[in-house]
Amino acid sequence: MLLLTFGLIATDLNWQKMKEGRMYLTLLVTPLQWLIDIPARAADGLSDLFVDRASLIRDNEHLRSEALELQRRTLRMEALTEENIQLRELLNARQRVEHNVKAVELIGVNPDPFLHEIILNRGVEDGLAVGQPVIDSGGILGQVLSLAHYTSRVMLITDARTAIPVEVNRSGFRSIALGKGLLNELELSHVPSTADIEEGDLLVTSGLGGRFPRGYPVGVVEEIVRDPGRPFLLVKAKPSARLDRSRQLLVIDYPNPQSSVQSEPQLGLDESQESPET
Fold first, then answer.
1. What is the DSSP string of 132-187?
2. DSSP tag of 114
3. 178, 229: one domain
4. Are 174 and 165 in contact (CB under 8 A)?
5. Is a pLDDT exceeding 70 seen at residue 43?
6. Are 35 and 18 members of one domain?
7. Which of 88, 91, 115, 201 has the most CB within a 10 Å radius?
8. CA-based Rg of the chain, rounded to a whole angstrom?
9. What is the pLDDT of residues 154-166, one digit of tens each?
10. Which of 137, 132, 183 is nearest to 157 (CA)?
11. Residue 166 sits in which domain range?
12. Are residues 128 and 232 in the same domain?
């Protein structure tokens, strides 16, 4: 057997026909080798498929987490940007105010839909007094209604109990702006048909009554209804202050006739208080 093996090797090395025969044999065996290799290649393909799928799932989860984190940061940046804008506007408003002011922040809203009231983070201990005007960067927002030691309650100008002496900035016509219980609407009472007032006119505080200093924006005339059957015009205005959005506010240290301050339990929205006359 050993001699036969050496003989075949010698023949393969020296006889050209043997090499050609080996080539034909290799050609015949190639399909068999390909068939034998199919399971191994299929196993490799499935392994790569599962590995790639698991890798893609991990990558997708990682990217999803990063996207959520970036979205959270973006939302936070938007909130900080908006707060920064409000603080800048409030700073500009403070520079325009001739009286001393105190910076306050809104911390609560009265849930009663018939009472337009908010809660501030300053009270008696901070020197606030009942009746003091409250403004934002747009204009008059309301006035202090009642006080606790460290908080205060403010009645907005749209509350149905509120009436503010105003004048048309353009013509000087004076009237009373009444709250109607609607967050974005004021109404001027007893406006004669001959009054010099137009849509788009700016209404400012007239200073009459001693509750609000003169010249602060109150609202803008949006609609004038002339009814031949009524002796007076129906004038509707939109408040200049951002009643439903402002958070950073100013309390004006303005003299008012109500000097006595009665405190109430902190954030006591359930206790009835006498509203200041406006």
1. -EEE-SSSEEEEEEEE-SS-EEEEETTSTT-EEEEEETTT--EEEEEE-S-TT-EE
2. T
3. yes
4. yes
5. no
6. yes
7. 201
8. 41
9. 999 999 999 999 9
10. 183
11. 101-252
12. yes
Residues 9 and 86 placed together within one structural domain of the fold: yes
Nearest to 136 by CA among 101, 174, 166, 170: 101
> Residue 268 pLDDT more than 80?
no
Q: Where residue 101 falls among pLDDT bands split at 50, 70, 90? A: confident
Give the chain's domain count.
2
- What is the tens place of the pLDDT at every residue in 169-196? 989 999 999 999 998 999 998 899 889 9
CA distance 63 to 96: 49
Buried b (16+ CB within 10 A) or exposed e, 32-58: eeeeeeeeeeeeeeeeeeeeeeeeeee
The alpha carbon of 15 is separated from its chain's Cα centroid by a whole number of angstroms, namely: 92
Mean pLDDT within 103-120? 92
Whether residue 249 contacts residue 256, with contact meaning beta carbons closer than 8 Å, is answered with no
Provide the token pair at 132: 């003091």
For 47-71, what is each residue's pLDDT tens digit?
Answer: 666 656 677 777 777 777 777 666 6
Domain assignment of residue 186, yes or no: yes
Q: Cβ of 178: how many Cβ atoms within 10 Å? A: 20
Half-sphere exposure of 122 (CA within 13 A, CB side): 18
pTM: 0.62
C-alpha distance from residue 189 to each of 59, 165, 211 (Å): 66, 10, 19
183, two tokens = 């967050």
**CB atoms closer than 10 angstroms to residue 221:** 20
We report the CATH number of the domain holding residue 136 as: 2.40.10.340
Q: Which two tokens stand for residue 205?
A: 């505080």
